[in-house]
Automatic annotation (TrEMBL):
<protein>
    <submittedName>
        <fullName>CoB--CoM heterodisulfide reductase</fullName>
        <ecNumber>1.8.98.1</ecNumber>
    </submittedName>
</protein>
<feature type="domain" description="Cysteine-rich">
    <location>
        <begin position="148"/>
        <end position="236"/>
    </location>
</feature>
<dbReference type="InterPro" id="IPR051278">
    <property type="entry name" value="HdrB/HdrD_reductase"/>
</dbReference>
<feature type="domain" description="Cysteine-rich">
    <location>
        <begin position="4"/>
        <end position="86"/>
    </location>
</feature>
<dbReference type="InterPro" id="IPR004017">
    <property type="entry name" value="Cys_rich_dom"/>
</dbReference>
<dbReference type="Pfam" id="PF02754">
    <property type="entry name" value="CCG"/>
</dbReference>
<dbReference type="GO" id="GO:0051912">
    <property type="term" value="F:CoB--CoM heterodisulfide reductase activity"/>
</dbReference>
<keyword id="KW-0560">Oxidoreductase</keyword>
Length: 289
């Protein structure tokens, strides 16, 4: 199976562990992920309010145009925000007025895009294309006894509503089960973590993260896994602030689901990119790593 992968800005910073573990897991599963050459920011976070919505859309469109030059493979994003931005802009190309205006802007870079590619989230690809049976067949270290809170976040399945159930999502929990672990009953799996608001209102972020961590711990989770870089960063990095603000003692490791897959596939801690975690997963995963 071949795909064009859009890494996104977070893959070079806060979510480097997501990108790295995804590439390692892809090798095990026989996925060919070809990185889009010369990709740029998808226009996520605050760019539309700074440079305008159309300019931000063209940023995403440029990535799609570059992917189209590489072939007709689906474009896969690991980041939920990147997936949402690329997917939304891709849909806008069905509007001839937008398509013409965007292609006029893209022509300044000797590019054009016809809107025919499909934008996918890596979680969707794993379950829909690879399949749970194939995912389970590659497990060499079953995660038996590990209790996992699958934190989908508010954007991954809800923004475009193209895969999974956006009110009762199961894809993430099903992968956890395929790896031999136990997905816990986690009512806050779709709760918003405030995303990039952490940069301007960290106390609000801490207030949003607190009930998510509380829900996971009360469910008996040993770790939390997520498919979203902002979710991972907020739940991982803000536990110290949550503990300070709410007099708690949370110490829940927060991993990307591809890191959990890497562990179950017997890959080493470097391949699973475990050393990028702020809250150490060493104790929770000592049986397997």
């Amino acid at each position: 199976m071949k795909y064009s992968i859009y890494p996104g800005c977070s893959s070079e910073g806060t979510a480097i562990s997501y990108h790295h573990s995804t590439l390692e897991v892809a090798k095990v599963l026989g996925l060919e992920l070809r990185e889009i050459e010369d990709w740029n920011c998808c226009g996520s976070t605050v760019s539309s309010s700074v440079i305008g919505q159309f300019a931000a859309d063209v940023l995403s469109a440029r990535n799609l145009a570059l992917a189209e030059k590489m072939g007709t493979e689906d474009v896969v994003a690991t980041c939920s925000s990147c997936y949402t931005n690329l997917g939304c802009v891709n849909k806008k190309f069905a509007n001839e007025k937008f398509k013409n205006a965007a292609n006029d802007a893209l022509s300044k870079d000797d590019l054009s895009y016809d809107g025919k590619l499909k934008v996918r989230n890596i979680l969707d690809v794993m379950v829909t294309d690879i399949g749970l049976e194939q995912i389970a067949s590659k497990v060499t270290k079953p995660l038996t006894g590990l209790k996992v809170a699958g934190y989908v976040g508010c954007q991954t399945v809800r923004a475009l509503r193209e895969f999974d159930n956006w009110e009762q999502p199961t894809f993430l929990d099903n992968i956890v089960s395929a790896l031999g672990a136990e997905p816990v009953n986690f009512p806050y799996k779709l709760k918003c973590c405030t995303g990039i608001m952490n940069a301007t209102a960290p106390d609000i972020t801490a207030s949003a993260v607190y009930p998510i961590l509380k829900s996971a711990q009360e469910a008996g989770a040993d770790i939390i896994v997520t498919p979203c870089p902002l979710c991972q960063m907020n739940l991982d990095a803000y536990q110290v602030k949550v503990n300070k603000n709410f007099s708690t003692k949370y110490n829940l490791p927060v991993l990307f689901f591809t890191q959990l897959m890497a562990i179950a596939y017997g890959l080493d801690r470097k391949q699973a990119a475990l050393d990028y975690c702020i809250v150490s997963p060493n104790n929770a995963l000592k049986q397997w790593v």
